[in-house]
Design a protein that fits this description.
Mean pLDDT of chain B: 85
Low-confidence stretches of chain B: 1-9
Oligomer: heterodimer
Number of domains of chain B: 3
CATH topology of one domain in chain A: Rossmann fold
Helix content of chain B: over 70%
Strand content of chain A: 15-25%
Structural class of chain A: alpha/beta
Number of helices of chain A: 9
Radius of gyration of chain B: 29 Å
Number of strands of chain A: 10
CATH topology of the largest domain in chain B: MetI-like fold
């Protein structure tokens, strides 16, 4: 079966003053349609590089990315990115920021009135319809990120790429945003790749957590399937043993990698052997068999 | 103190209460401080300057008499204004007389052709100080406008392409420090060679000064636009890449707005330089304007000349200041970053 999104043996090497730096080595990952995947790992391990390669903003030195059977080697609105620092155009209003993307993507397929309605609809989805005329510097950080998400959603991407979308927010705002994202996700069922530093965020939101080894030459370390029923409620889950087990798995991985960066993965059931990740991921449906309790 | 004032409320004397609160609070203190900072201190500084000018000037004897102090300069400023009014009066009278003659000619049944020719004859009095101010403003505006129309597009393309930047950089760096006086002879010769027409729309001297201004005020705008364009946030460029914006849309929607602050910084510098250059260019090109006024007064060498030049110096400075303020308020209008502190 062909996967929806296939990151196929991707390696990337950057030339530096001190010689070539191999940032990613042989990253291999399949993502099913409608799946929510998190990438987690220590700073500087190349998570963002993976995301940028999928986005087409960077080109892999070896390997490639295949989306719905087509190779991607340049950026495009079918892989919308939510940037960590929101990247809204400061001289445009909230509405115009989203409208710019809508106009670009639906210029030929939607009428002017439809594009207006679609822009408003997406801003409603992120609960920002009350501030259409505000400029980015007049709204809070969380609100900016909501607009950033609305802009990305409005492109109706095949894959939504989120680069630490809530990393710059305070923890209370972050929890609100995570709840909002889950709510939106339950309606739209997008395919998402999200980078995060936050273990709770990863477990709460994801179907699968990809844990990356430390760089240089970072790659996929372990993969954890999160088999928790949706909708998920953070308060209920806080005392759920399964949830806490997943949490512990991720924390353990991060700590062990930190101590011994090159150690091999342990033999917990969801752990994918580095050499053979495809067998693990080829069938997303199979993840239900892998409850790691 | 505060409680005493509060108790006034029992008597329900709202206006009195307001006054007392006003006096008790630091509102008055802040107001006073504001007045001192914004009005009293500059006033004192100007007073001190006028005193030093007056005292210093009294010590200097030139071949044209004593160096004029503020009082003499003021006297000449008034005289220049009176001359201007007198000249306007004469002009109005001239046209009145002409109109009378024209009416007579019409009554006498003269042919239309001849009447038109009579009307064409304009007033030929010498330009007053105020006329020269306007000529200068007009000239600098022309030169600056041409310069900006060339500089901004060049800045945009050099800012967007590294190759072009490397190509343009040495050229910009070499021409930037060239003095207007060095350009002027070349400009004069080129204009004389190329601008050959029987019915010139512009005076050559006007073109010479305006083009010299253009050549000198190109560079700050080019450099600042280049810097502004090349320092557009990488994230915003990524946004445009994800959206696959065309080159034109990217430039108009992202690159230009983002570099507007830097473009305006360049324009302000350019206009300042243009205004300085213009005075020098007018002196040499003999374009009617403030520069020519200064030169003529210098050559004239009457006892009033130095005071008149002094007036011109102050007016030139003041106009330069107004031009800069004008650009600043334009910049504030066009800048999306309302929090930026602009001075």
């Amino acid at each position: 079966m062909n996967p929806y999104l296939n990151i196929d043996h991707v390696s990337i090497t950057f030339p530096t003053d001190k010689g070539p730096l191999n940032v990613l080595k042989d990253v291999n990952l399949n993502v099913a349609k409608g799946e929510f995947v998190s990438l987690i790992g220590h700073s500087g391990c190349g998570k963002s590089t993976v995301l940028n390669i999928v986005a087409g903003l960077l080109n892999a030195t070896e390997g490639g990315v295949v989306l719905e059977g087509k190779e991607v080697d340049e950026p495009g609105p079918d892989r919308a990115v939510v940037f960590q620092n929101h990247s809204l155009l400061p001289w445009l209003s909230v509405y115009d920021n989203v409208r710019l993307a809508v106009d670009r993507v639906f210029k030929k397929t939607k009428s002017k009135a439809e594009r207006d309605a679609w822009t408003r609809h997406n801003l409603e989805l992120v609960h920002m319809d009350h501030a259409l005329d505000r400029r980015p510097d007049e709204i809070s950080g969380g609100m900016k990120q909501r607009v950033g998400i609305a802009r990305a959603l409005a492109m109706q991407p095949k894959v939504l790429l989120m680069d630490e979308p809530f990393g710059a927010l305070d923890s209370l705002t972050r929890t609100h945003m995570q709840d909002s994202l889950m709510e939106i996700q339950s309606q739209l069922n997008n395919t998402v790749i999200m980078i995060t530093h936050d273990v709770d965020e990863a477990v709460l939101l994801s179907d699968r957590i990809i844990m990356m080894t430390n760089g240089p030459s970072a790659t996929v370390g372990e993969i954890l399937h999160i088999d928790l029923p949706r909708p998920r409620d953070r308060l209920e889950l806080a005392e759920d043993p399964t949830y806490n087990h997943y949490r512990a798995e991720v924390v353990k991985f991060l700590h062990e990698r930190h101590e011994r960066p090159k150690s091999k993965s342990k033999s917990t059931p969801p752990a994918a052997p580095k050499s053979d990740p495809e067998a693990e991921e080829a069938e997303p449906g199979s993840r239900h068999l892998r409850i790691a309790v | 103190m505060l409680t005493a004032i509060r108790s006034q409320k029992t008597f329900d004397t709202a206006p009195l209460n307001a006054v007392l609160t006003f006096l008790s609070g630091d509102t008055l203190l802040r107001l006073t401080r504001g007045v001192i900072e914004k009005a009293v201190i500059p006033f004192l500084a100007i007073g001190a300057f006028l005193f030093l000018w007056s005292a210093g000037a009294a010590q200097v004897q030139t071949s044209l008499g004593q160096l004029p102090g503020p009082a003499m300069a003021w006297e000449q400023a008034v005289a220049l204004y009176d001359e201007h009014k007198a000249e306007r009066q004469k002009e109005a009278e001239f046209y009145e007389r002409m109109e009378e003659r024209v009416q007579k000619a019409i009554a006498a049944g003269q042919p239309q052709e001849r009447i038109d020719r009579m009307r064409e004859r304009g007033y030929t009095g010498k330009p007053t100080f105020f006329d020269q101010i306007f000529t200068s403003l007009y000239t600098v505006a022309t030169g600056f406008l041409i310069g900006s129309l060339i500089a901004i597009p060049i800045g945009i393309v050099t800012g967007m392409s590294n190759t072009l930047y490397n190509a343009m950089n040495p050229i910009i760096q070499i021409f930037k420090p060239v003095s207007p006086l060095a350009w002027l002879p070349l400009v004069t010769m080129v204009v004389s060679a190329l601008y050959v027409t029987d019915d010139p729309m512009f005076d050559k001297s006007f073109l010479n000064s305006a083009l010299t201004v253009t050549l000198c005020c190109l560079w700050p705008t080019v450099i600042n636009t280049t810097v502004g364009v090349s320092s557009v946030s990488k994230d915003l460029i990524n946004v445009s890449r994800v959206l696959r914006l065309s080159w034109l849309t990217k430039t108009v929607k992202i690159v230009l707005p983002s570099s507007i602050p830097m473009i305006f910084t360049g324009l302000r510098l350019s206009l300042g330089i243009g205004w300085m250059v213009l005075i020098a260019a007018e002196m040499l090109a003999q374009n009617p304007g403030l520069g020519k006024f200064v030169w003529d007064e210098f050559q004239n060498g009457s006892s009033n000349s130095l005071a008149r030049i002094m007036v011109a110096v102050l007016v030139i400075g003041f106009i330069g200041y107004l031009l800069d303020r004008g650009m600043l308020s334009l910049q504030k209008r066009f800048s999306w970053d309302k929090n930026a502190v602009l001075r």
